[in-house]
Amino acid sequence: MTERLHTAQPYAIGLFRIVTGLLFLCHGAASLFGVLGGAAGTDGGTIPAGTWPGWYAAVIQLIGGGLVMLGLGTRVAACVASGSMAYAYFYVHQPAGLWPMANGGEAAAMFCWALFLLVFTGSGALGLDALFARRAGAKRNPGASTEAQESPVAA
Fold first, then answer.
1. Distance of CA 34 to the CA centre of its chain
2. Is the pLDDT assigned to residue 102 strictly greater than 80?
3. Which of 11, 65, 92, 128 can pair with 24 through a Cys bridge, CB separation 3.0 to 4.6 Å?
4. d(C-alpha 82, C-alpha 32), whole Å
5. How far is it, in rounded angstroms, from Cα 101 to Cα 114?
6. Among candidate residues 124, 122, 127, 95, the one with its CA nearest the CA of residue 108
């Protein structure tokens, strides 16, 4: 059973990445465009352009979430996004109380750690990073077996 789970690991990481990226992207879209209920605390509205730090966080959420979801530049996008959520937790939420349940920072803390994990795991399977890595490997080593090129690569 352990071997079967180990074989499925790149796919589980890929699905985790897709869901995490999609949810992160949705937060950015809500804040920037007023969709999906709008920005928190605005009654369906948006965050005014250039407002620090909310508007910049929303841009990072939209772009970073999209890149993570697609698995394109996953490690870098996840690192920037994770850092923005650490900032959100410590400078926006934590002054209201120590624990996430008390300060409303559960989402910021969870996104911070989920994205931080992706910095180390990479995109897993089903991402553009893996596709580009396979193509680059095929161009560098055209005589390699197709089996080695088709295996899911955690990029």
1. 21
2. yes
3. 65
4. 19
5. 18
6. 95
Dist. CA 11–CA 23, nearest whole Å: 18
The answer to whether the beta carbons of residues 38 and 45 sit under 8 Å apart is yes
Task: Please write the tens of the pLDDT for every residue from 59-94.
Answer: 999 999 999 999 999 999 999 999 999 999 999 999
Burial class (CB in 10 A: 0-12, 13-18, 19+), 103: middle
Other beta carbons within 10 angstroms of residue 76's beta carbon come to 12
Could you tell me if 136 and 110 are in contact, meaning their C-beta atoms sit under 8 angstroms apart? Answer: no
- Rounded-to-integer distance, Cα 41 and Cα 123, Å: 33
Cα angle 131, 70, 12 (rounded to 5 degrees) comes to: 80
Within 10 angstroms of residue 10's Cβ, the number of other Cβ atoms is 22
Supply the pTM of this predicted model: 0.82
CB 58 within 8 A of CB 65: no
Per-residue CA distances from 141 to 4, 124, 132, 153 (Å): 29, 22, 14, 16
Q: What is the DSSP code (8-state) at residue 38? A: -
